[in-house]
Amino acid sequence: MTKPAEHTSTGVASAKRGVSSEEHTLTELLEIQRAAFLRDGIPDADTRIDRITRLSALLLDHADEIAEALAADFGSRPRELSLAADVAGCMIDLAHQRRGVKEWMQETKYAKIQGLLGYKQSVRHDPLGVVGIMGPWNFPLQLTFVPAGSAFAAGNRVLMRPSSITARTTDVIAKHAPNYFSIEELAVVTSKHGSGSDFAKLKVDHMFFTGSPEVGASVAQEAAKNLVPVTLELGGKNPAVVDIDADIDKAATMLADARMVNGGQVCLCPDYVFVPESKLGQFTDKVIARWTEKFPTILDNEQYTSTINQKNYDRIVGLIEDAEQLGATKRQVIPGGEPLPNAERRKIPPTLLTGVKAGMKIEEDEVFGPVLTVYPYREITEVIGHISSHPHPLTMYWCGDRNDRFEKLADNTRSGSINGNDFAIHLFSGDLPFGGVGRSGMGAYHGKTGFETFSHARAVAFSTLPMTVADLMSPPFLPKDTKMTDNQLKLWKFFNNRAMKKVRKRLGA
Q1: Cβ burial, residue 285 (10 Å; 0-12/13-18/19+)
Q2: pTM for the whole thing?
């Protein structure tokens, strides 16, 4: 690793690296970063790119150690998944931020013709200051490092708090971060600094949180006390819809695989599926066959991700038992001789449920585990009615062509995103925003959207006109002023009436 020279855009020497964030309190870290931001001013493009590059290096240089820590935190988690998601998976957006920052940070000019007449308009894209980022346990680095890259691109300083549930992974990052950043730029906050609630109380300039809706609501409440704006990336029960003309085997295979990513512990995993009634048996049989093929052993299989902790294990098992007791049909893939579910290893077998109805807990609660619920349907209106009667999900899956039925579904439901025929593919574009709507989130990031989330669009207007608005809008108002105001109203009424006639004509009224 090559460590770039320590500098700032103003040439003022920054604090040296090697200082651990744990040598300071939360409040001190915030004060240090805010003072550095005010001292150094807005960073230039090279400084921002340098920070993003060092952020990438922090992950890449310690990839194996990170994978080992994640496996230890989960109990079992495939090295390939950890490297693909929490290391390599971050690089797509970090590279996009590096490429785009010079263009995005430039002042945007508008109304050029008016500018020639003496009324110049533009928008600056200024950093906010100090950004607080709170991450979850399921992808503790991807969901902190990617927003941190956006915050650096926008010119901010970052206080990062990965999840305390994945404490070993957080310790790896906290140990190595001082070799790449001074705490004036990036400070990794650990459980030694206090709880997540303590972090949410900080008077940062923007708070970014990824996690459950319940905790997100608490973070928003704490931030609101200080009028701190928030971005909330939450979860929800993500629906999947298999079209009547879709290839059932292909759809079942994709959704069976998607449900088992990270042991089902992904906010983007499909939670329940609507399948044409006449093809329900074919679909469920294929899902079970796919799981049987992929998991010939589970209990001692290091490739099979464990449930993160006992609390979540008990919750998921409880959801399955409640549904079965109330009449749902359960099918599980349990290799011969393996005692599953297994509390000691926190391993729950892939589980498919049918016959789930209102009143069962799993009908309302996000599972966040290896369980897939399947519903039959006859008409797309049934699907729309079910999805629309529940909180808006983070994403929605469609298996089939982009046809009239898809458009009807998209027009009459709400979700953070829609993915067709594959799992979470909107994540792999630098141009698409990532975020929820309603209970599944507030705000978005990735690509330019992430830069904008952590920037302030600052309007700038200059006038060299011979008259001033100040004069026109202050007393005394003379008869000529009254006449000019009345003429304005007549003119706008004329334009509005003409617009109304055009609309009515198009509507056939």
Answers
A1: middle
A2: 0.92
